[in-house]
Structures are given as structure tokens and as C-alpha cells.
Write a structure and sequence with these properties.
The protein is mostly helical. The chain has helices at residues 5-33, 42-79, 92-98, 103-115, 119-134, 142-172.
Length: 176
């Protein structure tokens, strides 16, 4: 099996950074949820905070890696304009827009990815920064912890929707 350069970058974008981000979410959310002073010893709190800080930053970095590789490496190939009379299957955006039954994949799905997908790294960075800033005192700050879980969920929802649209769009009109 061989991968083209474009397929390799698509794999790095979606299955590399994207999958890492989505997997890190579960651990981060569980870490925030279970960060309660009554459940932890001082030693346990130290160990948990080390894992939570590094995990949230890993998630934020993976989210930024996903949107940056998607926006600046993969997306230009998707959006490339075909020369006159070219086979549109090699130009995904044009292929989708030329077929009325497929146009909504671009009009809604790709527009979501282009704009709303950027919420994921922004919200993930907010969480990572706040976890680092508050440190162990976050265990006593119930309201702040809940707000961070909401940001985490917003980040996850935006990334999940973008990932699903990306997978379906790539299935219908792959970047070759």
C-alpha cells in the first residue's frame, strides 16, 4: 500500500492530530470531573495535577496541529480551482459544487470545518491555561471547574463535528 503526499498529510491531519485530540478529551474531562479535594490526598493531588496539566496541554497542541495542518496544508488542495475542461474528481470542492445532490457537503459541512472547527483549539487552550494557572486550587473551585468542563465539551463537540464532516467529505470527494 502506498500513500500519496496528499493522503499522508490527510492522515497526519485527521488520524494523527485529530484522533489524538479526541482521545485526550476523555482523559481530560475525567481528570477535571474527579478533581475533588475530598477524594484526593496531597500526594494524589500532586500526581493528578501533573497528569492533568500535561494532558490538557497535549490536547490543546493536538487541536492546534489539527486546524493548522487542515487549514494551511490540506485545505488548499481541497479548494484548488480546476483548469477549464479538467476532470472534476481531482478537484474536490468543484466536484461537490458541480453536483447539486452533493453541494450541501461543501455548503454546510466544509463551511463548518472552515470556521467553527477553530473553536476546538481555542477552547482547549483556555482549559489548558486555566488548569495550569489554578493548579491544585482548582479542586476547591467548583464553578471554575464546571466552566472548564463546559469549554472542554464545546471543544470536543466542535472537533467531533469537524472530524465527521471531514471524513464524509473525504469519502465523497477525496483530496488526491
Amino acid at each position: 500500500m502506498e500513500l500519496t503526499n496528499r493522503e499522508l498529510w490527510g492522515l497526519i491531519h485527521g488520524m494523527g492530530f485529530g484522533a489524538l485530540f479526541l482521545l485526550a478529551f476523555a482523559g481530560g474531562l475525567a481528570g477535571l470531573y474527579s478533581l475533588r479535594p475530598e477524594l484526593l490526598t496531597v500526594t494524589g493531588m500532586r500526581e493528578r495535577m501533573t497528569r492533568l496539566v500535561s494532558g490538557t496541554w497535549l490536547m490543546a497542541i493536538a487541536a492546534w496541529g489539527t486546524v493548522i495542518t487542515g487549514t494551511y496544508i490540506v485545505y488548499p488542495w481541497y479548494r484548488a480551482a480546476p483548469p477549464k475542461g479538467a476532470d472534476l474528481t481531482a478537484f474536490p470542492r468543484s466536484f461537490l459544487l458541480a453536483n447539486p445532490s452533493l453541494a450541501e457537503w461543501h455548503n454546510f459541512g466544509m463551511e463548518w470545518k472552515e470556521h467553527v472547527g477553530w473553536l476546538a483549539p481555542i477552547a482547549a487552550t483556555v482549559v489548558a491555561f486555566a488548569v495550569t494557572y489554578y493548579g491544585p486550587t482548582l479542586a476547591k473551585k467548583v464553578g471554575e471547574r464546571r466552566a472548564l468542563m463546559v469549554f472542554f465539551i464545546i471543544s470536543f463537540a466542535a472537533a467531533t463535528a469537524a472530524g465527521i464532516f471531514g471524513a464524509f467529505i473525504n469519502k465523497v470527494a477525496p483530496v488526491r
